[in-house]
Design a protein that fits this description.
By secondary structure, the chain is mainly beta. The chain is about 0% helix and about 20% strand. InterPro entries: Metallo-depent_PP-like (IPR029052).
């Protein structure tokens, strides 16, 4: 995407600075987000990589290898 475009999670409302956003369905991010209080969980399980979850209380992430990948 052109550099002037930003992902939706970078458009934060300052009143929500203490609100965590957890999202998936964006495997290209490989579970990484640089936005504060934002947790990307899609680590490509459908493509044979990992399935990732988060403990909402501690923010600790857990990943396991996927047993099978999406067949296209």
């Amino acid at each position: 995407a052109p550099s002037r475009f930003r992902p939706w999670f970078e458009w934060r409302n300052p009143q929500e600075d203490n609100v965590d956003i957890v999202f998936g369905h964006w495997a290209a991010l490989n579970g990484q987000s640089s936005a504060p209080h934002t947790h990307a969980l899609d680590t490509g399980c459908a493509w044979g990589y990992k399935l990732t979850a988060i403990n909402l209380k501690t923010k600790e992430r857990f990943s396991v290898p996927c047993q099978s990948a999406l067949r296209m």
